[in-house]
What does this fold into?
Amino acid sequence: MAKQTPRTLSGFMELLPAPQQQLEHMMEILRRTYSLYGFTPLDTPVIEASEVLLAKGGGETEKQIYRFQKGGADLSLRFDLTVPLAKYVALHYSDLTFPFRRYQIGKVYRGERAQRGRFREFYQADIDIIGDGKLSIVNEAEIPAIIYKTFSALGLRRFRIRVNNRKILNGFYACLNLTDRAGDIMRTVDKLDKIGPEKVQAILTEEFAVSPEDAGEILRFIAISGENEAVLTALETYRGRNEIFDQGLEELKTVVRYLSDFGIPTENFAVDLTIARGLDYYTGTVYETVLLDHPEIGSVCSGGRYDNLAEYYTDKQLPGVGISIGLTRLFYVLGEQGMLNPKLPTAPADVLILPMTEDLSPAIALATRLRENGIRTQLHCENKKFKQKIGYADKLGVPYVIFLGENEINAGIVACKDMSTGEQTKLEADATIYRIRAGLDARRDGAVILE
Amino acid sequence: MAKQTPRTLSGFMELLPAPQQQLEHMMEILRRTYSLYGFTPLDTPVIEASEVLLAKGGGETEKQIYRFQKGGADLSLRFDLTVPLAKYVALHYSDLTFPFRRYQIGKVYRGERAQRGRFREFYQADIDIIGDGKLSIVNEAEIPAIIYKTFSALGLRRFRIRVNNRKILNGFYACLNLTDRAGDIMRTVDKLDKIGPEKVQAILTEEFAVSPEDAGEILRFIAISGENEAVLTALETYRGRNEIFDQGLEELKTVVRYLSDFGIPTENFAVDLTIARGLDYYTGTVYETVLLDHPEIGSVCSGGRYDNLAEYYTDKQLPGVGISIGLTRLFYVLGEQGMLNPKLPTAPADVLILPMTEDLSPAIALATRLRENGIRTQLHCENKKFKQKIGYADKLGVPYVIFLGENEINAGIVACKDMSTGEQTKLEADATIYRIRAGLDARRDGAVILE
It folds into this structure.
């Protein structure tokens, strides 16, 4: 028979079993952490009607989207989890209870030009809190706690959550009568880290006709940095000139005020006046998260406050705040950087049982008993040599191998080999189970990510 | 602004938060159970190259598939998890260790005609064990154990795993010189439960030119039923006439022999000579699972042994055995039948904290402490009346509400209301946490499915 060459499309991540286990660990940690903060899991279709998904229309989105016809219907694959959430909340509004907190970890699709580390199918892990009409600033203050808890649970310590408030920026640019160019200016300022202040100043004055005085004013403003309290004190000197600015400053102070109550160490948090996170969507607090030793990765968790989640679907005012982790890209980059803990177990089983008798009853009964004790167990009954079977456990990294021969069965004991130490015990089944469980607990006592 | 009416495509399941939690519970149970038996999680792309996905080609599949062009490439959405597995194993053959045990819970797509209870996007939950060249019969004997454990963990007791062996059927029909019509005959016999033996006999003789004697022989054969041992004894009387039959009988005896060692109660298992599960794929043991009180649902978990997983991609002989649960459909039917346990918690949080003071520090610190103790906690800081906040907990089914006013803060205690009993305690934080955890454990002590 002629064969079809098997292949996976470029830009689509398909992992081998061991790295897949690492990704599953990460997803499990995200699910658990998000749940701790009262977010409910949601799952929306991957396919939506094109006119629904593209209600906002325009831009890069439409070019990248996977769009097609089926049975006369115009369909598209979701390109993020926010638009489907907006649709969901508008559609099910009367069945939901607000504030509505949901998390969603799901695949999204963008037909970008294929390049290393860029994916066309990738997981996003989003949380959003949606209010009906209003939403307390405390929700915005809580978001850094969730980011902190998530990344610490993954094993990271050297990361920083950078926070700004769009009202502060908008108010500041309004004071300078630069509201019409605020978008261009923020985009330029956003490059400060990369191109330096001189270049920023040059672009502002040459490309966007900002006066040298205003450009200087802008550079002085975004240079405000340091400890949270110092930044807030510096910002106080701008108070009283613009109502929106003052409101933004109050909000930022609330966010900073509750940091320690939310359990966020000060070294993991910084007010950063340079970040803006896009232009037309966010209206209050905005967030970025950077790995301190890997700034080149960019932000690994971003988001912010918005006033109007579902304006394309409903007249209802639905303000919210949310963050998103680009999980597939994060996982890829961590792998590239060698930051995925190789010691964390990735084997499909905790124990491999090698029956050494023709009658398999004792081996199967033992497997059943181990499983009843929550131990992931595989029977190896293939017609292979002993050495090959040991090699199987070795290759997969199965931590324990149990041999069950006539002698062991007659003596009512189990021979169990710890594959990492080579130590072999001959104990009763209960004692063996106890030993395996203790060993597994110790092995699992590691984080997914290593710094 | 003109609004786009929000809608979800018909044939696409989109759940409200409470049922979504129930589905998540089910998925979590599937993941845990599959893991106990040494299966590793796998995740393959939803989109594949059409020529890869349709390598086998033909039939209903091609009509139902979501297929489209993007950037000059001919793409399709996967319609099951088996073809992507075949591609995966052929593509990554040299990186895998055999026997290779994987589970995958993922969405698949079929553009079927929309009708009640039929879905175009639905979850399948599959396990497969793939051998390299050979695969021991013990794997086939283990599958019913996994089915049993899965459905018991979901809360079911009144179900039965029906098992047959294709070699027995093929051998039997070969004895009657009916191999050329075996497919048609099996399809007809498969309807026995629905149309009765007379109709089966009529179809066999009239449509497929089976002689009345042979038709009688077939009906006597498929009427063999009863306790496992009785069926095996009856089958023994056919031994010696056909090699394939004898081989199938040996395999079936092995499967039955180890049932109790695998922990499968006899009432949950039956040899059933009428089932065949499709025609050209399975070659050994085949499985169906029926709910005894809901036979109209049909099989909720099916599969079998096959000789050649990836024949369209590779010359390698890759035999395997696998089963699949149509999770979305199962979930839908359970809901329709009122079999989803309404008592299992579906709230997004275990505790709702209502701060009664302007300074939110104590409330936030308490939330942080509860979360550190693994209690899913939400702060309710919106500007609403007390009654509305209680109503919020009530609507979502949040089991505990904590009030934190000046008095409690000053006294170092916490007022906590059990929303189901109305009982309110005023205890220190630690004692409150202890009480909440005990209460949560008791609440979680229920199954997802009720019979």
Notes: The first strand of chain B starts at residue 40 and ends at 41.
